[in-house]
Design goal:
Blueprint (H helix, E strand, L loop, with lengths): L1 H9 L6 H7 L3 H4 L1 E4 L2 E4 L7 H13 L2 H9 L23 H23 L7 E5 L6 H10 L7 E5 L4 H10 L5 E6 L6 H16 L9 E5 L2 H7 L6 E3 L16 H7 L1 H20 L6 H15 L4 E7 L6 H13 L17 E6 L8 H6 L6 E6 L9 H19 L16 E6 L4 H22 L10 H11 L8 H11 L2
Parallel strand pairs: 3-4, 3-5, 5-6, 6-7, 8-9, 8-10, 10-11
Antiparallel strand pairs: 1-2, 2-11
Helix pairs in contact: 1-4, 7-11, 11-12, 12-17, 13-17, 14-17
The structure holds 6-O-phosphono-beta-D-fructofuranose (F6P).
Length: 499
């Protein structure tokens, strides 16, 4: 089925970026798309009409329309776990019963925000949000992106089992004024539950009479949370069909909704829904997440790029590369197809990145002159997030745009050390303003792009069995049952803990 399509894609003539611009004076408008307050510039990629046409044919061959329909109507798309993947229902796009259920759960979440705000549960001014992976990265990234600095609540998101992460928060916070939010889809995750226990112990030591009375749980396993001791009235459930790395739209967003206001959370959902509609309704050659996935597949399969770099030219979006790393690598870092066969293509690229302009002075050397071809993604915001001299923000944006231009143009020199080969691709994503709705649309864009990549690869983006073995081995290593792991690991254990 697909091998012929891939073959014809591989045999398309390879052109340089500069010649693509020379051949098409309208390239910028042809490969620039606007949606929900965001401008996506794909013109500095090697996509052209022929490549888009060939990838569209591949997408049809892979049944992308049917797969999108299956995703958005709540069919069992996560076949290895026998579940739907209904994060879009949280935004109002899905099967009517799932949308209704999500809305009812959001209503419950909103009520709890109002109850906490009213002071009925205590005079809270500080929130400790405990969770890891999808139960932490989204809330932490959103809070950093959207906080204004004058909020009523101070929010600390702690994920690592390393006490160095939690201890400074406990030293700084006032136990009596702290609301503990435990975010865990399964409510069995070792790091989260250990941190939660330590926070309860700390509250008790600090004289809080009923620490569990200051706990809210966000989970798809409410029965586990009850078992753990959380009162049912303070458990905000979400659907089992919402995957961890897709869960910030569910009650996992509670801490952000409380810290920044429920309206902010509602705007986030509304922005994401705009992108969902665009994704659902646009033909492939005008569909922004689909075009982005075409570029991803072009670089992964045809140019053998193993990584993709994302640079946020905005401090507020500094955690976005981490968030995308989980979204893309946990979703598409797989080696088997939906049918369980060995995947004959490269799966997810290694997603990495950082913040501009800092990264320019650290890793951009490799991007400009290294032997690896790394497609780069630049993110920037037109409206500044600061009130200093506009020279700061202007300088930031000019640097961002100049880097894309330099990667593409290169610069020939007779001195090979000073030669820039150029023809290095980038996508630039320009938000008019960094606000909840545009951020919601941006994150939904990344989710759909990840899904389309999975469809083109014929893999399941919604399971994550790869993370299980390490957890099992950690338990095994910690158990004092005489079973031993390999000699190297046992030696490390001996050095750390003694014989
Ligand atoms: O270990 C991976 C993982 O299961 C992620 O998929 C998930 O987001 C994270 O751990 C946290 O899981 P939970 O929300 O169940 O605590």
């Amino acid at each position: 089925m697909t091998s012929d399509q891939w073959q014809s894609l591989r045999s398309l003539p390879q052109t340089t970026l500069t010649s693509l611009f020379e051949a098409d004076s309208k390239r910028v408008s042809g490969f620039g798309w606007e949606q929900a307050g965001i401008y996506f510039d794909f013109s500095k990629t090697h996509l052209d009409d022929k490549t888009v046409g060939a990838f569209s044919a591949l997408a049809d061959d892979m049944g992308l329309s049917q797969r999108v329909q299956a995703l958005l109507s709540g069919e069992t798309v996560n076949i290895s776990e026998g579940r739907a993947a209904e994060h879009c229902a949280e935004r109002g796009i899905g099967s009517p019963p799932s949308v209704e259920n999500a809305q009812a759960l959001h209503q419950r979440m909103k009520s709890l925000v109002e109850i906490v705000d009213s002071g009925a549960l205590g005079e809270f001014t500080q929130i400790i949000h405990l969770g890891i992976g999808g139960s932490a990265l989204g809330p932490k990234m959103l809070h950093q992106a959207l906080k204004l600095g004058d909020e009523k609540y101070e929010l600390a998101v702690v994920s690592n089992i390393d006490g160095v992460a939690l201890e400074p928060v406990l030293e700084r916070f006032d136990a009596g004024k702290t609301l503990l939010v435990i975010a865990s889809k399964t409510f069995t995750t070792a790091e989260t539950l250990m941190n939660a226990q330590s926070v309860l112990d700390w509250m008790r030591e600090q004289g809080v009479a009923d620490p569990l009375g200051q706990v809210v749980a966000l989970t798809a396993s409410p029965e586990q949370a009850v078992k753990w001791g959380v009162d049912e009235t303070r458990i905000l459930p979400f659907s089992e069909t919402v995957g961890g790395r897709y869960s910030l739209w569910s009650s996992i967003g509670f801490s952000v909704a409380l810290a920044l206001g429920y309206d902010v959370f509602a705007d986030l959902l509304a922005g994401a829904a705009l992108m969902d509609q665009h994704f659902r309704d646009s033909p492939w050659d005008q569909n922004i997440p689909v075009l982005a996935a075409f570029a991803d597949q072009y670089y992964a399969q045809i140019r053998d790029c193993e990584t993709r770099a994302v640079f946020a030219y905005d401090e507020r979006l500094g955690l976005l590369p981490d968030y995308l790393q989980q979204l893309e690598m946990e979703s598409n870092g797989k080696a088997v197809t939906l049918d369980g066969e060995a995947l004959a293509l490269h799966s997810s690229p290694i997603v990495w990145g950082g913040v501009g302009t800092d990264a320019q002075h650290a890793v951009f050397q490799l991007l400009h002159q290294g032997t690896h071809l790394v497609p780069v993604e630049f993110l920037a915001v037109v409206e500044p997030g600061d009130s200093l001299d506009p020279a700061h923000h202007n300088g930031l944006l000019l640097n961002c745009f100049a880097q894309g231009a330099a990667l593409m143009a290169g610069k020939k020199s007779d001195d090979s050390h000073r030669n820039y080969p150029g023809d290095r691709p980038s996508v630039t994503i320009l938000l008019e303003e960094l606000e909840a709705s545009s951020l919601g649309a941006l994150l939904a864009f990344y989710e759909h792009r990840t899904f389309v990549n999975a469809v083109l690869l014929n893999i399941n983006p919604f399971d994550q069995f790869g993370v299980e073995l390490g957890k099992q081995m950690a338990n095994k290593l910690g158990a004092d049952d005489g079973n031993r792991l390999d000699a190297s690991t046992e030696e490390l254990k001996k050095r750390a803990f003694g014989a």
